[in-house]
Amino acid sequence: MTNPTTAAGNNPAGESSNDASEEMFVAPRQHLLDLDDLSVGEINDLLDSAEGMLEITGRDIRKTPALRGKTIITLFFENSTRTRVSFEQAGKILGADVINVTASTSSVSKGESLLNTVKTLQAMKIDALVVRHPHSGAPYFISNHTDASVVNAGDGMHAHPTQSLLDLFTVRNNIGDMAGKKIAIVGDVLYSRVARSDILAFQKMGAEVTISCPNTLIPDEWTLGSTLGDETGFGGLKLARNVEEAVDSADVVMALRIQQERQDAGHLPSLREYSDRWGINAKRMALANDGALLMHPGPMNEGVEISSEVAHGAQSVVEEQVRNAVAVRMAVLYTLCAPGKSSRIGGSESNSGNEA
Ligand code: ASP
Prior knowledge:
By secondary structure, the protein is of the alpha/beta class.
């Protein structure tokens, strides 16, 4: 099966990889659950593939037969607009049959367990399950009970790998190589799965990441004003004392939503005070580098973590993030589901001609 795009597509042997030995012995990968075990080569391959997919999304007739005959189910136990719709659109452009299941309209609302829901769907012969769940780790559990490829579309406070891939893709398309670039992430680091995945993703690409938030919204053992060591898994992550320090000379400023649905304790004085002290506005963006990008994973609470003026201003790439989401999710679905294991990320049966 050839890649439906004109881009390089899958290159499991990863010419662009930092470490050839890492690629040589990598086990076949069936799922995308997190970014932490993806090599830089695998990430670059997905972004390269997304480049070609983006070209397809811009065509008048946006349809390819690449995944014809494949069935993809989106299984969402949490609300979503952009993630669910973009996965659906991605699957449909690739020619797959996409079925959407939401917890509120499924037998989950009748008390069916997660395991039985998955077994039921599995019995219908599906190729991919795109899962969003309020509990961290749920997609891992599901991946142990299905033959389908599982894509984590956000699990609790844990991870949101496709959001991070599309964020990397958006930054790469705007500023190129991320090595040495300064990324400021401002907001609810404690409860945001995007924060965790994006910190890992940008650090993998060699960027210098600084976060800023109230000290009630970082893990207890972290201290504002410090730089984390390798033992934390986020070695080199800077914890700014205040938002001005974080955005100073930044190449990218990312505002995160306050995850009110995940906060069980009063970690914030008030949304108004949060906005005054950590909200991203024109005055704070002026501290960043000229031409710095302003990002937000959405949904935005305008007037809280981001002002309307900058959210829709010249530096904002928020809508571009949404557009890129479809291309990146096409690349992920194609990589996991295209006929033959050769197309799977890191697949050892690669027929790309580059495998060791
Ligand atoms: N849409 C992203 C997520 O699902 C960000 C957010 O909800 O704040 O995690």
